[in-house]
Amino acid sequence: MSTKIAPSLLAADFGNLQRDVEMVNQSDADWHHIDVMDGVFVPNISYGMPVVKAIAKHATKPLDVHLMIVDPDRYIKTFAELGAGVLSVHYEACTHLHRTLQAIKAEGMKAGVALNPHTSVALLEDTIQDIDVVCLMSVNPGFGGQSFIENTYEKVKQLKAIIQRKGTSTLIEIDGGVTDSNAQKLVECGADVLVAGSFVFKASDPTKTIAELSKLVNN
Ligand code: DX5
Ligand code: ZN
Q: What confidence tens digit (pLDDT) does each residue in 11-39 have?
Protein backbone atom coordinates (compact mmCIF):
# COMPACT_ATOMS: atom_id res chain seq x y z
CA MET A 1 0.00 0.00 0.00
CA SER A 2 1.32 3.43 -0.87
CA THR A 3 2.25 5.99 1.75
CA LYS A 4 -0.10 8.95 1.81
CA ILE A 5 1.02 12.58 1.99
CA ALA A 6 -1.22 15.06 3.79
CA PRO A 7 -0.07 18.69 3.53
CA SER A 8 -1.14 20.68 6.60
CA LEU A 9 -2.95 23.84 5.59
CA LEU A 10 -1.96 25.42 8.91
CA ALA A 11 1.22 26.46 7.10
CA ALA A 12 -0.63 27.78 4.03
CA ASP A 13 -0.90 31.47 3.18
CA PHE A 14 -4.34 32.32 4.62
CA GLY A 15 -4.53 35.35 2.37
CA ASN A 16 -4.32 32.97 -0.58
CA LEU A 17 -6.09 29.96 0.86
CA GLN A 18 -7.94 29.04 -2.33
CA ARG A 19 -4.67 29.10 -4.28
CA ASP A 20 -2.97 26.85 -1.72
CA VAL A 21 -5.89 24.39 -1.56
CA GLU A 22 -5.82 24.19 -5.35
CA MET A 23 -2.07 23.59 -5.27
CA VAL A 24 -2.74 20.55 -3.05
CA ASN A 25 -5.55 19.44 -5.40
CA GLN A 26 -3.18 19.45 -8.34
CA SER A 27 -0.24 17.89 -6.50
CA ASP A 28 0.67 14.28 -5.68
CA ALA A 29 -0.80 14.74 -2.17
CA ASP A 30 -3.52 12.39 -0.95
CA TRP A 31 -5.36 14.32 1.79
CA HIS A 32 -5.82 17.90 2.95
CA HIS A 33 -4.81 18.01 6.65
CA ILE A 34 -6.87 20.58 8.55
CA ASP A 35 -5.85 21.62 12.08
CA VAL A 36 -8.60 22.99 14.30
CA MET A 37 -7.40 24.46 17.63
CA ASP A 38 -9.51 25.98 20.40
CA GLY A 39 -6.98 27.83 22.57
CA VAL A 40 -7.92 25.53 25.49
CA PHE A 41 -6.73 22.03 24.61
CA VAL A 42 -3.69 23.65 22.98
CA PRO A 43 -2.19 27.10 23.59
CA ASN A 44 -3.15 28.42 20.16
CA ILE A 45 -6.24 29.15 18.06
CA SER A 46 -6.05 28.29 14.38
CA TYR A 47 -9.36 28.50 12.52
CA GLY A 48 -12.88 27.20 12.87
CA MET A 49 -15.91 26.16 10.88
CA PRO A 50 -16.24 29.06 8.40
CA VAL A 51 -12.66 28.55 7.25
CA VAL A 52 -13.08 24.77 7.04
CA LYS A 53 -16.19 25.42 4.95
CA ALA A 54 -14.16 27.65 2.61
CA ILE A 55 -11.44 24.99 2.31
CA ALA A 56 -14.05 22.28 1.63
CA LYS A 57 -15.54 24.39 -1.18
CA HIS A 58 -12.29 24.20 -3.15
CA ALA A 59 -10.75 20.92 -1.99
CA THR A 60 -11.02 17.87 -4.25
CA LYS A 61 -9.20 15.37 -1.98
CA PRO A 62 -10.39 13.90 1.34
CA LEU A 63 -10.42 16.31 4.28
CA ASP A 64 -8.38 14.97 7.19
CA VAL A 65 -9.61 17.06 10.10
CA HIS A 66 -7.48 17.07 13.27
CA LEU A 67 -9.42 18.46 16.22
CA MET A 68 -7.21 19.89 18.96
CA ILE A 69 -10.18 20.88 21.07
CA VAL A 70 -11.73 19.89 24.39
CA ASP A 71 -15.00 17.95 24.37
CA PRO A 72 -14.95 17.24 20.61
CA ASP A 73 -18.24 15.30 20.77
CA ARG A 74 -20.06 18.65 20.55
CA TYR A 75 -18.95 19.15 16.96
CA ILE A 76 -18.92 15.69 15.35
CA LYS A 77 -22.10 16.33 13.38
CA THR A 78 -20.92 19.78 12.33
CA PHE A 79 -17.67 18.47 10.85
CA ALA A 80 -19.54 15.69 9.06
CA GLU A 81 -21.75 18.34 7.47
CA LEU A 82 -18.66 20.34 6.52
CA GLY A 83 -17.41 17.34 4.57
CA ALA A 84 -14.70 15.80 6.77
CA GLY A 85 -13.52 12.42 5.49
CA VAL A 86 -11.40 11.59 8.52
CA LEU A 87 -12.20 13.15 11.89
CA SER A 88 -9.47 12.81 14.53
CA VAL A 89 -10.03 13.59 18.18
CA HIS A 90 -7.36 13.64 20.86
CA TYR A 91 -7.18 10.70 23.24
CA GLU A 92 -6.40 13.20 26.00
CA ALA A 93 -9.60 15.17 25.27
CA CYS A 94 -12.04 12.24 25.41
CA THR A 95 -13.45 10.76 28.60
CA HIS A 96 -15.51 8.20 26.67
CA LEU A 97 -13.35 7.54 23.63
CA HIS A 98 -15.23 4.42 22.55
CA ARG A 99 -18.49 6.33 22.42
CA THR A 100 -16.87 9.21 20.53
CA LEU A 101 -15.46 6.83 17.90
CA GLN A 102 -18.87 5.26 17.34
CA ALA A 103 -20.43 8.71 16.98
CA ILE A 104 -17.85 9.70 14.33
CA LYS A 105 -18.52 6.52 12.34
CA ALA A 106 -22.27 6.92 12.67
CA GLU A 107 -21.86 10.23 10.80
CA GLY A 108 -20.13 8.39 7.94
CA MET A 109 -16.57 9.56 8.64
CA LYS A 110 -13.40 7.60 9.30
CA ALA A 111 -12.56 7.72 12.99
CA GLY A 112 -9.15 9.01 14.02
CA VAL A 113 -7.43 9.26 17.39
CA ALA A 114 -4.48 11.59 17.94
CA LEU A 115 -1.95 10.93 20.71
CA ASN A 116 0.24 13.58 22.30
CA PRO A 117 3.96 12.77 22.47
CA HIS A 118 3.67 11.76 26.15
CA THR A 119 0.71 9.40 25.64
CA SER A 120 1.58 5.71 25.31
CA VAL A 121 0.30 3.78 22.30
CA ALA A 122 -0.47 0.92 24.70
CA LEU A 123 -3.55 2.90 25.79
CA LEU A 124 -5.14 2.05 22.44
CA GLU A 125 -5.02 -1.73 23.00
CA ASP A 126 -8.75 -1.87 23.74
CA THR A 127 -9.99 0.51 21.05
CA ILE A 128 -7.70 -0.17 18.10
CA GLN A 129 -10.34 -2.30 16.37
CA ASP A 130 -12.59 0.79 16.27
CA ILE A 131 -9.93 3.22 15.00
CA ASP A 132 -9.36 3.89 11.29
CA VAL A 133 -6.40 6.26 11.76
CA VAL A 134 -4.05 6.83 14.70
CA CYS A 135 -2.39 10.22 14.44
CA LEU A 136 0.87 10.11 16.38
CA MET A 137 1.95 13.62 17.30
CA SER A 138 5.66 13.97 16.71
CA VAL A 139 5.63 17.49 18.22
CA ASN A 140 3.52 18.94 21.02
CA PRO A 141 0.33 20.04 19.25
CA GLY A 142 -0.49 23.70 18.81
CA PHE A 143 2.04 25.06 16.37
CA GLY A 144 3.61 24.30 13.03
CA GLY A 145 7.32 24.50 12.40
CA GLN A 146 8.54 22.64 15.50
CA SER A 147 11.25 20.00 15.51
CA PHE A 148 10.49 16.33 15.27
CA ILE A 149 10.62 14.29 18.50
CA GLU A 150 12.90 11.29 17.92
CA ASN A 151 11.02 8.96 20.29
CA THR A 152 8.28 8.84 17.64
CA TYR A 153 10.09 6.07 15.70
CA GLU A 154 9.77 3.77 18.72
CA LYS A 155 6.07 4.63 19.11
CA VAL A 156 5.38 3.85 15.46
CA LYS A 157 6.98 0.42 15.85
CA GLN A 158 5.05 -0.33 19.04
CA LEU A 159 1.77 0.78 17.48
CA LYS A 160 2.42 -1.24 14.32
CA ALA A 161 2.94 -4.31 16.51
CA ILE A 162 -0.41 -3.76 18.25
CA ILE A 163 -2.19 -3.30 14.89
CA GLN A 164 -0.63 -6.48 13.48
CA ARG A 165 -1.37 -8.50 16.61
CA LYS A 166 -5.00 -7.36 16.63
CA GLY A 167 -5.31 -7.77 12.84
CA THR A 168 -6.89 -4.37 12.19
CA SER A 169 -6.39 -2.17 9.12
CA THR A 170 -5.73 0.99 11.15
CA LEU A 171 -3.49 3.55 9.43
CA ILE A 172 -0.62 5.21 11.30
CA GLU A 173 -0.32 8.94 10.61
CA ILE A 174 2.63 11.07 11.73
CA ASP A 175 2.05 14.75 12.47
CA GLY A 176 4.72 17.33 13.24
CA GLY A 177 8.20 18.13 11.99
CA VAL A 178 8.03 15.72 9.06
CA THR A 179 10.68 16.40 6.39
CA ASP A 180 12.63 14.48 3.77
CA SER A 181 15.17 13.63 6.47
CA ASN A 182 12.82 11.54 8.66
CA ALA A 183 10.10 10.42 6.21
CA GLN A 184 11.78 7.25 4.98
CA LYS A 185 12.66 6.00 8.46
CA LEU A 186 9.09 6.67 9.62
CA VAL A 187 7.73 4.55 6.80
CA GLU A 188 10.23 1.79 7.54
CA CYS A 189 8.94 1.78 11.13
CA GLY A 190 5.34 1.42 9.89
CA ALA A 191 3.91 4.86 9.10
CA ASP A 192 1.15 5.03 6.43
CA VAL A 193 0.34 8.76 6.28
CA LEU A 194 2.76 11.68 6.61
CA VAL A 195 1.46 15.14 7.50
CA ALA A 196 3.77 17.96 6.41
CA GLY A 197 3.11 21.65 7.01
CA SER A 198 6.16 23.90 6.97
CA PHE A 199 8.24 21.49 4.90
CA VAL A 200 5.71 21.82 2.07
CA PHE A 201 4.43 25.38 2.31
CA LYS A 202 7.71 27.11 3.17
CA ALA A 203 9.41 25.44 0.23
CA SER A 204 10.09 27.53 -2.87
CA ASP A 205 8.14 24.99 -4.97
CA PRO A 206 5.48 23.25 -2.79
CA THR A 207 4.14 21.09 -5.64
CA LYS A 208 7.60 19.76 -6.39
CA THR A 209 8.31 19.23 -2.67
CA ILE A 210 5.14 17.12 -2.34
CA ALA A 211 6.08 15.10 -5.44
CA GLU A 212 9.60 14.45 -4.14
CA LEU A 213 8.38 13.50 -0.66
CA SER A 214 5.83 11.12 -2.15
CA LYS A 215 8.46 9.58 -4.42
CA LEU A 216 10.89 9.19 -1.52
CA VAL A 217 8.45 7.08 0.49
CA ASN A 218 6.81 5.21 -2.39
CA ASN A 219 9.71 3.68 -4.24
C1 DX5 B 1 0.46 20.81 15.03
C2 DX5 B 1 -0.42 20.40 13.90
C3 DX5 B 1 0.32 19.95 12.71
C4 DX5 B 1 1.18 21.03 12.09
C5 DX5 B 1 2.34 20.37 11.43
O6 DX5 B 1 -0.28 21.01 16.16
O7 DX5 B 1 -1.24 19.30 14.29
O8 DX5 B 1 -0.54 19.39 11.73
O9 DX5 B 1 0.49 21.81 11.15
O10 DX5 B 1 3.19 21.35 10.98
P11 DX5 B 1 4.72 21.07 10.68
O12 DX5 B 1 4.77 20.06 9.58
O13 DX5 B 1 5.23 22.41 10.29
O14 DX5 B 1 5.34 20.55 11.94
ZN1 ZN C 1 -2.38 18.20 12.69
A: 999 999 999 999 999 999 999 999 999 99
| CA distances for 187 relative to 3, 157, 180, angstroms | 8, 10, 11
CB 65 within 8 A of CB 132: no
pTM (predicted TM-score): 0.98
Query: What ranges in the chain are assigned the alpha helix state H?
Result: 17-26, 49-58, 76-82, 97-106, 152-166, 183-189, 198-201, 206-217
Q: Given the CA of residue 145, which atom of ligand 1 is nearest to it?
A: 13
Which residue of 198, 202, 213 sits with most ligand 1 atoms within 8 Å of its CB, as the best mutation to test the pocket?
198
Contacts of 52 (CB under 8 A, 6+ apart): 34, 36, 63, 65, 79, 82, 84
Ion ligand 2 nearby residues (CB, 5 A): 35, 66, 175
User: From the CA of 133, which ligand is nearest?
Assistant: 2
pLDDT in tens, 106-141: 999 999 999 999 999 999 999 999 999 999 999 999
What's the CA gap between 23 and 158, in Å, rounded? 35
